Amino acid sequence: MAASTFYDLYRHGSLGLTLTDALDELIGDESIAPQLAMKVLTQFDRVVAETLQEKVKSRLTFKGSLDTYRFCDEVWTFLIRNVTFKMDGNQGTVVADKVKIVSCSAKRNDDK
């Protein structure tokens, strides 16, 4: 699978934002070219997606009130309120007032 077929969802998490900030600083200092920064981000997208798929085996269940949902461009988005998460193995529960879940197909449309 080509690197361009991975979603960039994880760039918006704390690790992805920190990486982007560091790359921006390196570009600003002229330590790296913008093209190299894009290659690093593309590699980040691939490695995070593959690692989560291969290494994470935990499961959780959640219960809450569905507030809104939408399906656009092959992406589901759910906004859930008063959510309770339960991990397998009785590891306790986590409660949140509001959770946004974004779900994308495992394969991009350009993979077809």
TrEMBL record:
<dbReference type="GO" id="GO:0006367">
    <property type="term" value="P:transcription initiation at RNA polymerase II promoter"/>
</dbReference>
<keyword id="KW-0539">Nucleus</keyword>
<comment type="subunit">
    <text>TFIIA is a heterodimer composed of the large TOA1 and the small TOA2 subunits.</text>
</comment>
<feature type="domain" description="Transcription initiation factor IIA gamma subunit C-terminal">
    <location>
        <begin position="63"/>
        <end position="106"/>
    </location>
</feature>
<dbReference type="InterPro" id="IPR009088">
    <property type="entry name" value="TFIIA_b-brl"/>
</dbReference>
<dbReference type="InterPro" id="IPR009083">
    <property type="entry name" value="TFIIA_a-hlx"/>
</dbReference>
<keyword id="KW-0805">Transcription regulation</keyword>
<feature type="domain" description="Transcription initiation factor IIA gamma subunit N-terminal">
    <location>
        <begin position="6"/>
        <end position="52"/>
    </location>
</feature>
<dbReference type="InterPro" id="IPR003194">
    <property type="entry name" value="TFIIA_gsu"/>
</dbReference>
<dbReference type="GO" id="GO:0005672">
    <property type="term" value="C:transcription factor TFIIA complex"/>
</dbReference>
<dbReference type="Pfam" id="PF02751">
    <property type="entry name" value="TFIIA_gamma_C"/>
</dbReference>
<comment type="similarity">
    <text>Belongs to the TFIIA subunit 2 family.</text>
</comment>
<dbReference type="Pfam" id="PF02268">
    <property type="entry name" value="TFIIA_gamma_N"/>
</dbReference>
<keyword id="KW-0804">Transcription</keyword>
<protein>
    <recommendedName>
        <fullName>Transcription initiation factor IIA subunit 2</fullName>
    </recommendedName>
</protein>
<dbReference type="InterPro" id="IPR015872">
    <property type="entry name" value="TFIIA_gsu_N"/>
</dbReference>
<dbReference type="InterPro" id="IPR015871">
    <property type="entry name" value="TFIIA_gsu_C"/>
</dbReference>
<comment type="function">
    <text>TFIIA is a component of the transcription machinery of RNA polymerase II and plays an important role in transcriptional activation. TFIIA in a complex with TBP mediates transcriptional activity.</text>
</comment>
